[in-house]
Amino acid sequence: MQNSLLKNRKIISVRLDKDVYCIEVVIKQTYLEGVEDFFFVITNRYNEDNRMYLDFVKKDQLNDFDLFEIMVPFSSDIEKLVEGEIWDLHILRILDNNEVKSRIKSKGHELNLYSIVQEDLEKVVYPYTTKKGNFSFCASDYKLFSMFDELHVKKDGTIQFSGYFNYPPLFQINGYEFGQMTLLVKDNLTENERMVPLKSVNRAEQGKKYIGSKLPENIGFQGEVNLLEELELEQVKHFSFYMVLDYKINGVQKQLLSLRMKCNSVQGLPVRYILKVKDKKVQLRIKSTKVSEYLSLSVSRYNLKAEVVQGIKKRWVKIRRSKRLISWYKAAFTVIGMLVPTNKKLVVFESYHGKQYSDSPRAIYEYMKEHCLDYKLIWSVNRASMNYFAQKDVEYVRRFSIRWLLIMTRAKYWVNNVRFPIWLPKPKHTIYVQTWHGTPLKRLAMDMDAVHMPGTNTSKYKANFLKEAGKWDYLVSPNTYSTEIFQRAFQFNKDVIESGYPRNDFLKNSNNEETINDLKRKFNLPLDKKIILYAPTWRDNQFYRKGKYRFNLELDLMRMREELGDSYITIMRMHYLVSQNMDLTEFEGFAYDFSHLEDIRELYVISDILITDYSSVFFDYANLRRPIIFFTYDLEDYRDNLRGFYFDFEEKAPGLLTKTTEELIAGVKDIQSRQFKVSERFEEFYEKFCYLECGQSTKRVVEAFVQTEKVTMDVERE
Fold first, then answer.
1. For the whole model, what pTM was predicted?
2. What are the distances in angstroms from CA 74 to CA 54, 80, 85, 118?
3. Rounded distance, CA 18 to CA 599, Å?
4. Helix (H) or strand (E) holding 286
5. pLDDT higher than threshold 50 for residue 608
6. How far is it, in rounded angstroms, from Cα 675 to Cα 563?
């Protein structure tokens, strides 16, 4: 192999030898200079301390690179590996008695063809290339993989295609045999599904290419489809593709649907065709989706002007998100911050990355708007939330715009409840007030043993957090307990405003029947039923990709409606990181999705019972002295593997802990059957965490950072 084609930590071949993965990787010789020792390991994605050291040998020297062969024996410790779900391959170097762990890069995208079936566990293990081009192993339920590798478009719009599939149990377990293959085509505008028969073809070369993969010869298919027939062009129509496989297992007929079909081995994508259909110009686009490399096909009416405008927009978005522009923006921010005069009456507010008008920044804003009339108050707003803020009676500016840059660099105060981007420099004249967004139950920052979030690792996460915390001038704390944790976990040694949370003033000042009924009418909720608020937190290890988290709803809403629907309704408020739309159509009249409501505070006030898990919402809700039920179906995993708790949650939680919907329903009925009374444990909790919440926290915070600044200026004058 030519030296110019080699890259450090890059895999050049994979093969299977009797259920042992043999992986060849090249390491640049200078990369190992000064290293005391090094190892190859696979590390559990969700627990970095769970790792397996691998055997390896040096096979060859290729100019400036050493070629190593790594052996991954999945036949041993299979149950541990399957249970771990995802394992990442690293090289571990020992430098100055410290571990330096780096990912191994992957070559190729069809690694699922090296699958190993674990029949007794009904699982399949296979290597794959991550979205960032790294090499990992996945253990999952049986899956049908299918792939296009050739596509041709004829003048009439007919698409001829070929590809291959892989369903590991079919080839590795006795009793399986496959029959008809069919292409399933779906679109975004209709519920129609087109079924296109596929012809089986011999692909013996795949078995030769993927050594040890146990692939039979007849895994190939070919066919053709015309998606322009009877086509309406009022909207852009997007198509997605799936494979349907009929098969038998021990003589029993079954059918299997594949994951969405990929096309990463198709050469020349993306492509665009301008075709004529019924005297109209039609545009057919075929491409691979950016992250997952699914085949994406769209059809639309061709409009030259619209194409030019769209092309310009796409290029601008690409430029706007580029690292070069961020570097330029950071440099401009730094220079302007040093040159422009400070506006000592300018305050910039931001809540949850500019997505909401909520939380303590909102409380501080509303107080200052009423009591600090000579101050200019501006909200920093995410691009996607501009329409939302346009409906508010507030002044706002789009995040990262030129105007935002000029306002942020001139502002005397920043008020935020989460972190700004790590690259954002703070001008020397700016006072950064960090309100934070919850009383800590789960371990934070430097107190975390391991970080399971996508796009980072434990050391990087902690380093970035400390860099951000170093910019804060004031940190708002709800109580002494939180102050001690914040100072340690954030390594924060500046001014802590121990005041109670400004956001909770609303709970103290609005807890009356008139306000509650007005809010119920505002939300079109029945006045004659009690309200259960379900507000869970997110899970670090449940995500789609960096910044996009998912949440598996474990509540049985059907059962809850059957048992509680006569007296209660349920309102759902998901964490802002997982607040994707839920389809609650089936539960109309009983379950309502309020995940995108600007501020949870109004939901607290109208709710009779809170159901949560490990979310800090229960610290706030306790101010209302109303019943709380904890739905902790994954308590052991969350406590022991994900975050860990600062105190004995099971012993100190101010409410009933349940693990099933049945237990939860029983808890609600028990509350319903007897008038709720604050228990001794609840009272102890209240006195420890809520003692500062008296409806005056916002006043305390504003007076702390504004008054301090006035005193400082007076001293300077003297």
1. 0.62
2. 11, 10, 13, 10
3. 57
4. strand 280-288
5. yes
6. 19
